[in-house]
Give the backbone structure.
Amino acid sequence: MDGVERLFKLRRFFLVVMLVLLFILIPISVSIGTLGNTFLDVFKLLLGVEGVPTEVRTALMLRLRRVLTSVTAGVILGAGGVCMQAVLRNPMASPFTLGISHAAALGVALSLILGFGGVTQYRVVYAYNPYVLPVFAFISSLLQVFIILTLAYRAKLTERALILAAIAMSFFYQAILSLVQYLALNELQVAMVVFWTFGDVGRADWVAVKVMAVVAGVLTTYYIIKSLDLDLISLGDDMAYASGVDPRRLRLEVTLASALGTSVVTAFTGVVAFLCLVAPHIARLVVGSSHRYLIPTSMLVGAILLLVADDVGRTVVSPVFLPAGIVLSLIGAPLLLYLLLRGGG
């Protein structure tokens, strides 16, 4: 019992450390930029204290919006990735590798192309109805969810074959986007669509931040409530049935929840590649496989990774901003190859 209690204490300690690290990184990230400002200005802004010059306040508010976008998107994707890996019992499963992100991006692009969710002016995308974009993204991602579950239950594909089929569908969605760009779009519309193929947290406005925060709160509550069920389904459908959990229903619920979160993030930031795959594996190395601790740890890791990736993208070639999705891909691609090689062995 002493060893088990010590393990629980270590897990709680690591969660506290990750939470403190996130709160430390937030003011640091807000302070990063070309405009001269002090940490005192940052803390005045965060605490709502007057005395910050107008131009400095404007710049800090823009950075704060990027930071909050990174945190909320990281929380959503980190949790979605770890829960998808649980219900599919596959370490390679995530909304990205299962094609949900690409399906959502296709829905957003079609919405913008048809003029339902935004317009392009002076080479900039303006989303005049931000609530429409997540709806189109979610509808498109539902199609991919239907395909995944059909392949799993009707075609009875193995876990590895299911991932390969989902990757093939991802290429299919990208091919549709490329075909539309080649045949029907002008240069400005092509530039608009290309944006959704990589993640940029700087495009989200305050409405988007609020929407993602609400979605993050709702999904976090749901995932935590289902943490024990996720432990059981990870051991197999027979174990879940014996414990009173319907694995098919749980798999459907979690997949839909993950699709919803991924759709919202993709609608406002584009495809943030590999985060939902990388964060769960880092968290699992530290706290183990108990979803009571794994889910919140994966959320914090996802938030920190996306926040740091955006900081690196804003500083490495300043004053040019690299999208956080590109920076994360440079990290996620080697990890994906490592997992494939380890699985093959």
